[in-house]
Amino acid sequence: MKTPGDERGKGDRAQAGRPSDGRVPGWLFDGPGGPLAASGAAKGFAPGTVTLGEIAEAVRGEVRGDPTTVISGVREIEDATPGDLVFAMDLRHALLAARSRAGAVVLRRGLEAGDKPCILVEEPRLALACVLEILGPGPRMPSGVDPTARIAASASISPDVRIGAHVVIEPGATIGPSCVLFPGVYVGFEAEIGEGTVLYPNVVIGERVKVGRRVIIHAGAVIGADGFGFVKDGDVHRKIPQVGTVVIEDDVEIGANACIDRATLGKTVIGQGTKIDNLVQIGHNVRVGRNSIIVGQTGIGGSATLGDGTILAGQVGIVDHVTVGPGATIAAGSLVTTNIRPGEMVSGRPARPHVDELHAEIAWRKLPDLLRSLEELQETVRSLEKMIRDKSGG
Fold first, then answer.
1. pTM exceeds 0.85 for this model
2. Is 284 annotated in the active site?
């Protein structure tokens, strides 16, 4: 009989390709929009050798000035040095960039930065994302498998994964190529982690959970805890076993300490490209569409459905079984208790069309003045009544 130590022994760690020389190579990225989106190393750029022209090509911008200007890094305008690239999103920042020590500037088309070399683009923030993929340092993790990791013999681990200290991978789990598991990660029985996914420290992936490719899950997130399902049995609450799973599709990012519960039956689904902030709670059997945004401290009740491209601002509450249509926007602090139409913007508690909520807020702010006017009117009426009584009595 195998002991736990036998099942998760050194032979399994060797399977994962621990290098014999103990090197700690730089982080390599690969793939659109995910944790393995291109870095300078992956694109063949050594530090200090990237030119303005190469960056302009990467961001599809137009160079003004010397395209051979060498760029060594990206900084805030006030901290820039002569080798740095800075970004100016508007006229005020363009003027500051022109007076800075920066070597070059990325500008929105139509702006200028004096005589500094620059790249003109349509969307500077989009260009910033691309440039940081090229020049940003990215996270660092030693190659291979840390000797303290405990990996089941029946787990399938690609040879090029990076696995940190005290990671636990249970039997039947699958870890795809180019994955990175930081220290303290737990991957449950028969869970699947897709290619290029990064799990930061102390992430928990429950049993049978499926995580797609190029997913980023930040520290402390729990994917696949039991859904909050109970049924009243006399005076006690009896637990309903949660035997479903969670599916995280490709290119999803999940913030620190977020919790996504497994389904009672079937699956909880987070659609491709969706981005979830820190401290978000997603209940059992929820379905979130593609390319949605869910901001911090939002809570989504069980079996709710969010269409593609929905936006939930901070501290939004969604009650059980509600449907939010594709493209809808829920303003911060709102409580959604009924279905929301596609493309609609709502706000308030309970949520209603945003224009209606604004009108109500305006009326609410006028209420003190209205009360004062009412009191003055009541006093005038009382004075008139007294005058009439006095005149009648006379």
1. no
2. yes
